[in-house]
Please model this.
Amino acid sequence: MSKRIVTVVGARPQFIKAAAVSRVLRAAAGLEEILIHTGQHYDENMSDVFFKELEIPRPDYHLGIGSGSHGAQTGRMLETIERALLETKPALLLVYGDTNSTLAGALAAAKLHIAVAHVEAGLRSFNRRMPEEINRVVTDHLADWLFAPTTGAVQHLKDEGLPDSRVHLSGDVMYDAALYYAAKATRESRILETLSLKPKGYILATIHRAENTDDPSRLAAVFGGLMEAAQAMPVVLPLHPRTRKMLQQAGLLETISRRLRLTEPAGYLDMVMLERNASVVVTDSGGVQKEAFFYRVPCVTLRDETEWVELVELGWNRVVPPHGAAQVADGIRASSAARGAEGSPYGTGDAAQRIVKVLQEA
Ligand code: UD1
Ligand code: UDP
Model:
């Protein structure tokens, strides 16, 4: 009889991570996957597009949770995931990253004495005001298998007293995805032509982190800086729905849409092409920071800190806290010509194989 694994996903970056692992998992002997989509992200371009482009199997359960405050959203997920777990009785539950869907999945399983595997374990910002930091710390401490993408992440887990027997250095599944979909992106994406962009002739930006969108002075600094940068080079910005909403509320959307090239959230294949051909990437996303490095594009991270410290150490990433528009614009200018050192902190593109092997033998 095969070992049943329930995977819980819900937000954009998790679809991409799960696509890389799911493909290997479903081809492996002795494993069966049941996929639960919490519905945390639900717009066509925040969810369905990834299932189509990345050929992710249709979810077996779609919980339709939608948006809400942290407590309400996580609570609704907990209740419905529990129901699905009681029905499917898996041997283990697999979660990714640090969203509310991650936390709800891990907590629901742990309470039912179902073993938990956490992919992207051990990441830390050491900033407990970030919802993601709470989610990842709790998930790591509930998990039986901790798949750490980097040696730094392994060290954080050790420092928190988690036993070595649970920790596996797997590499980063996002690197697997970047390698796997590179050719498909080149073949299928027409985004540069559609937006009339010249390779290395534009800045690519993404902003969605709560600490930037929900703080009016940081939001103004981020977008003030991007508008200043846009005087020298076009800034393309696929707009996350959270950011659109907050810009609208702040009365900034109209001015910004005249100065920046705002687009709808991009599909993954278009995003890969936009990243690969950008002159600089400016972001507060975790995944986008790493992808900039995969394509050797300098990156400015508009946050107070980053979990992906190896990118800063190699010289590909500069952390610029968005405390003022001029500071943001200066950071972007200074990074345009930056080149970092070579290195491969995220493994060799076989993270999914390593993870699945451990789960097969578990
Ligand atoms: C979530 C994760 C964050 C991750 C990000 C990836 C948590 C706490 N946060 O943040 O770690 O980096 O996803 O993108 O889990 N909305 C829509 N349509 C959608 C989804 C969201 O309009 O399909 C809007 C809603 O107004 C919603 C807001 O965006 O209230 C925020 O969505 P939510 O999923 O709560 O958090 P994200 O900011 O997307
Ligand atoms: N991404 C995308 N379209 C976009 C913005 C991001 O496909 O418009 C992809 C990006 O390439 C990366 C992932 O989504 O693979 C990162 O997700 P996000 O920035 O939403 O979340 P984070 O990584 O910060 O948790």
User: Anything to note?
Assistant: The mean pLDDT is 97.
